[in-house]
Amino acid sequence: MKVNQSLIDPLQAATYIVGGNAPRFVQELKNVLDQVDGNLVGDTYGSGKMIEDFQNQMAAYLGKESAVFFPSGTMAQQIALRIWCDELRLPKVAYHPLCHLEIHEQDGLKELHHIQPILLADKDRLITLDDVVQLEDNISCLLLELPQREIGGQLPAYSELEAISAYCRDKGIKLHLDGARLFEITPYYQRSVAEICALFDSVYVSFYKGIGGIAGAILAGDTAFTEKSKVWKRRHGGDLISLYPYILSSKYYFDQRIDKMGQYYEGAKELAAIMNQCEGIQTKPIVPVSNMFHVHMDYSADVISPILAQIYEETGVGLTGYLIETSDKSCSFELSIGDRYSKAPKDKLNEVFRLLEMRLKVNGN
Amino acid sequence: MKVNQSLIDPLQAATYIVGGNAPRFVQELKNVLDQVDGNLVGDTYGSGKMIEDFQNQMAAYLGKESAVFFPSGTMAQQIALRIWCDELRLPKVAYHPLCHLEIHEQDGLKELHHIQPILLADKDRLITLDDVVQLEDNISCLLLELPQREIGGQLPAYSELEAISAYCRDKGIKLHLDGARLFEITPYYQRSVAEICALFDSVYVSFYKGIGGIAGAILAGDTAFTEKSKVWKRRHGGDLISLYPYILSSKYYFDQRIDKMGQYYEGAKELAAIMNQCEGIQTKPIVPVSNMFHVHMDYSADVISPILAQIYEETGVGLTGYLIETSDKSCSFELSIGDRYSKAPKDKLNEVFRLLEMRLKVNGN
Question: Which of B4, B20, B113, B234 is a Cys-bridge partner for B301, taking CB atoms 3.0 to 4.6 Å apart?
C-alpha cells in the first residue's frame, strides 16, 4: 500500500481542517491539567482512587461488572483474546481479515500468544451471521469491530448483531467487541452503549478516537475476566507505575465529547453527501453510519495531490494530509468528524468541491 | 512476604520524609508542562521530533548507537532478552534469583516469550564471574542488574564487572544491563554512564527512580537491535499513539536531577552511618554504594510500627510507610535518597534515632 504524503504541509497550513478534534499538540494535555488540583494523588501500579474511580465510572457506563484501564487497545485486545482462549483451552479465534490485530500489530497475537486467527468474511464486506454459522473450525472467541474501520466504518444491522450474539452464546463462543469507535455508533443504532455491550462478553473502548484524549483504553467484562487481565497487563509491561496522564485526559475529553457523537454523525452524513455529488468521488459507506467514512476518488494521487494543495490554499479548507494509492488511477483517504468540522464555513466547504470537480475534469483525464 | 502498612498515614503526615524526591502528585506533571509551549507537537506512534530528539540524546549519553523510549522497563527488558534469544536461536538466559523479571512481572518472560531463565548465584549475594564461568547451560544472554536492588542495592567491584563482560564477549553471550538505577551508581564507580554501558550489548534505564519522572524507560544498543525492539514494542502494545507525557517528564527531571546523583549517594552514606549506630538496626550494605540501601531491624514490625509512628509525630521526620516482616522478630524497609533528604534537619534526624534506640530498648524485648 503506497501512501502519498505530499499534502501534510498544505493541510497543516489550512485555516479549517474538516477532520478530527484538534491537532496533537501538548496543549491538549495542558488543557486537562489546568483543571486538575496539583495535590491530586496519581495512580500507582493500577491502584489508587483516581484510576479506580474512572474504571468504575466506565464499567457502569458500559454496563459491565468491572473495567481496567490500559495504555493501549493493542495490549487490551490481545489480552482479552488470550484470556478467552485459555479459559476454553483452545488457542483459536475468528475476526475480520482487516482486523486491527491482523494488520496493525506486527502479529503480536501470534508471536506473543500463539493464538491462531481464522479470517472471517471477505476483506471488503462485514462479517455476517452466515459466516459465523459456516465456520468449520471450533473457536474460543469471535471478535467483532464496530464500526469496521478499514472498510469505511460499516455496521451490521442491529438485528444481525443480536443474532450473532445469540448464536455465539448458544455455541459457547465468547464474543469480544473491538469498540475503538463504540461511542461513535450509538446515534446510528439508537441504542445506549450498555445495550450494545450487553451483546458481548468483553469490550474494549478507546479514548483517543472520537473522544480525542491523549492515549488509553478500557477493557471491560465480568470481574473474573478483568482480574485476569490485570495479571496479563503486568506481563505485557502495561502496568505502569502511573498512567494518570492518560486517565485524566480520557476522563476530561470523555466528559467534553461523549454527548457530541450525534453531532459528529450528522456532520459525517452532511459532508459525505456533498462529496458524493462530485463526479469521480464516492464515499464508503455512501451514507455514513458513524462519524467516519472513506473517500474514494477515480484519479491517481499524483493528479489529485497538487490540485488539492491549491484548493486548500485558496479556500483555507483542508481535507486530508495523505492519499492512499489504491491503483494507478485511484486513491482514497479516511475522514473522522469531530469538533473541527462545525468550524469550517459551509460555503467554503461547497466551494472546495465545486473547484475540485471542475479542476479534476480539466486535469484528471 | 508479609508487609505491615500501618505507617502509611503517619508517613504522609510527616513534615520531612527522608526518602525519594517528591510525592506522586499530579503537580509533578504540571511542573513539567508549565515549561512546555502548548504548540509543541506530540509524538505519533514512535515518530516525531520530540521523541526522536530525546532518544538521540539518551543514545549519546549512554554511549550507544541508538535508543528507543518505552512506557515501562518490564516491556523493554523482556523484549531485549527476546531479541538476543532469537538472534542466538536459544531461548535461555541467566539472571539473579531476585531479578525484576523473576519476581515482579508475573512471569511475563516465560508466559509471553517462553524463555527459560537460569538463576545464577544465591538470593543474598551478587553474581560473580565464577558463577558465570561455572554455568552448565548454554545461554543467549546474561542480565546483570546494577545495583542489585533486592539485596539493598549492592554492586560488584568494577574489575569484576569488566571481567564478566570480557568473558561473555569471548563466549558469545550477550550481556544486558538492567540499569533501572544506573544513573545512581556513577558516583561510586567514578565512571561515566557511557563507560559502564560500553561493557554491555544492551541497556535499559528508568526515568522514575533517582530521576523522579512520571514513568518511562529507554532501551539502547546498536541500531539493528533497537529497530527490532520497535517491532516488539508494537507487539506488546507499547507503541502508543503518544508517549509524550512520559517523554517530557523524563527529559525535564533528567535535566533537573542527573547532576545530583553524587549528592544522593553522599546522603545515603550519611544516613546509613547514623542508622548503624543504633543497636538492633543495620543497613545493607553497611556502606551504601548508590543512593539506596535496605534497613534491617531486629524487632518485629508490630513492635516497631507504633514506636515509629510516635517518633514521626514528635520529630516531624518520616522514615518509611511500610515494614516487611522478615521473621517474627525482624523487619526491614528500603530507602532511596533523593531531593527530600537534604530538607530534613540533621538534628531532627539524629533525634529520631536517639528516640528509636531508647524506646526499642524499653519496649522491644
Answer: B4
